[in-house]
Amino acid sequence: MKQLKRGNITFARASLYAFMALAVGSWAYILAGADSGLEDMFSGRAWGNAGGFLKQLMGLEDSLTDGGRPAFLDLGRWAETGKLAYRTLLMSVLAISFAGVGVLLTFLPAARNVSNGELGGNPSPALGVLYHLLRFVFAFTRAVPELVWAMVIVFVLSPGVLPGAIALGLHNYGIVGRLSAEVVENMDPGPARALRSAGAGNLQMLAYGIIPQARAQFLTYLLYRWEVVIRTTVVVGFVSAGGLGREFRLSLSFFQYTDVALIILWYLILVVAVDLLSGFLRRMVRAD
Amino acid sequence: MIWTGTPKSKGPARLLETRRLLSLVLIGALVWSLASVDWGGGIVHTGGGDAIKGFALALFPPELSPEFLKVALAASWQTVVHAVAGITLAIVIGLPLGIAASGSLGTPGRSSTALAVAVRFILAFMRSIHELVWAVLFVTAFGLSSLAVVLAIAIPYAGILGRIYSELLNDVPQGPLVALRSSGASPVRVLFYGRIPMVLTDILGYSFYRFECALRAAAIMSFVGIRGLGFEIQLSLNDLRFDEVWTLLFFLVGLVLLVDYWSSRVRRSLQS
Span A3-11, mean pLDDT? Predict the structure, then answer.
């Protein structure tokens, strides 16, 4: 029991026990609840429904309104949904662009070593306030999920690609902003200080002392987030009416299940394509 | 750095090209996306300006009556329950899949057995589809229930965790494994006495980090109709009760930040 005396170990261990207790409590709460769905998991009817749904997705069993051949064997439907896939891709690029530009404009004062003058320059109360304000904005935008942002934004903006992109951009702004500020906090202060003492202004210090060091990691984070964003575009599309998400909802509510399958196919194509492209670009970032 | 005239592998001209090409691609993507949006009129709703004003004014003060705080607290609990159940199920599914995907049960030194490749493909498929899309599919197939939602969180998270676990298991130092093997330990023993003990803290740390993400995932599960913070936010938005929306947003942010703080402290204490 000797190693238990070290505070750190006990904290991690206590957290583990606390989490286990939480897990037991949560499962008990769910399984005891009226709508747990536990009985369904053991009832033949629910599995029969699920099997029927799967067959309808694959077009093996005619759904009520579908008639004719499955949508994913229809070239015309591929072309129509392809346009939506294009708009979905556009939404993801736009979202990452918004997040990237927003972070570029604000990540510097959000780094502690910039606001307290460690990198050179004079700390001022205003910079301190700005630091805390930006950290709060990062935390808030990050903590609110994309879908909730989208639900709020459609109150202001007309449905389309733009509100979805802004919702995704806001959430990712918080994530990439915090990571980028941490990159600056962990970077070697030498070059920036040298520039500062040689009389460089803020912009010059940013351009020659900080951006060159932080550039690769910033771009890598953005590209990683792009891979996440493309998976989330569909979900944001549910409410912001842009791209594949809206079509997915509509097809589901009209019971056109082969259309749903076609949209999932397009979705998977987009995810794989973005993963490959992002991986390629990330290798390019690392190469230079 | 002293310029020796022999850069890593490529000439200086080539390096410049990569960088210029990359910048060109990124700026091109930015311009393309901005140009493709229809910026002409009708971007803001009629009444969109009023909505912003109403939303901003509702912050002073948010709805803080005891009855509503009770609603928000109950909704937070629902969200936590789904998140915790989802992430525990994800760990239970992800750990064996991660071990299989790491290929560490096969012949030593070869990680690309047929089984490992197949499992890696399954994991990639599981995490390719967003948790809410899984939820919509499950609710359509099985009907609305807590378990459907928990499963919808668990599947993509097991896909992510499984991949990370397998990478962690593969990146362990080889020395202790060789020692175990040479003393006659079977692959299963090597796994349980060699690989897993070495990566256990990393596995715990990463799983805790994912718990924070699961919390957000659970909050938006309201979209398929399950109760929780997202559900209440949706109700309040429909009633145009923006003051209630603010309260619920602060509950959500507080919850996420709390778990974020907890998980970062756990990770720090595991590292030291």
Answer: 59
Q: Which residues of B touch A4 (CB under 8 A)?
A: none
Question: Under an 8 A CB cutoff, do B220 and A152 touch?
Answer: no
CB contacts, 8 Å: A9 with chain B: 269
Question: Which among B44, B82, B208 has the least Cβ separation from residue A156?
Answer: B44
How far A180 CA lies from chain B's nearest CA (Å)?
Answer: 17
pLDDT attached to residue B34: 84
Q: Superfamily assignment of B61-271 in CATH?
A: MetI-like (1.10.3720.10)
Q: What is the pLDDT of residues B16-55, one digit of tens each?
A: 577 778 888 888 888 888 888 777 666 777 777 777 887 7
Q: What is the pLDDT of residue B41?
A: 65
Residue in B with minimal Cα distance to A278? B26
Chosen CATH of A71-287 out of 1.25.40.10, 3.10.150.10, 1.10.860.10, 1.10.3720.10: 1.10.3720.10
- pTM, whole model, 2 decimals? 0.84
Taking an 8 Å cut-off on Cβ atoms, the answer to whether B85 and A27 are in contact is: yes
A248 contact residues in B (CB cutoff 8 A):
133, 136
- pLDDT tens figures, B213-262: 899 999 888 888 888 888 899 888 888 888 889 999 999 999 999 988 88
Compute the distance between CA of residue B86 and CA of residue B201 in angstroms, rounded to an integer: 21
Among the listed residues A226, A152, A236, the one whose alpha carbon sits nearest the alpha carbon of residue B133? A236
Q: Which run of H or E residues covers position B95?
A: helix B66-102
Q: How much is the ipTM here?
A: 0.81
A46: left (phi over 0), alpha (psi -120 to 50) or beta: alpha
A25/B84 Cα distance (integer angstroms): 9
* Between B262 and A70, residue with greater pLDDT: B262
Least CA distance to A27: which residue of chain B? B85
Closest partner residue to A287 among B18, B136, B265, by Cβ? B18
Domain definitions of chain B by residue range: 61-271
Residue B61, preceding bond cis, omega within 30 degrees?
yes
- The candidate with the shortest Cα–Cα distance to B143, out of B75, B224, B230, B220, is B224
Pairwise CB contact (< 8 Å): A144 & B21? no
Do the beta carbons of residue A86 and residue A233 sit within 8 Å? no
Does the CB of A280 have a partner CB in chain B at under 8 Å? no
A53 interfaces chain B, CB cutoff of 8 Å:
yes
Measured distance CA(A106)–CA(A181) in Å, rounded: 9
Nearest to A90 among B36, B144, B223 (CB): B36
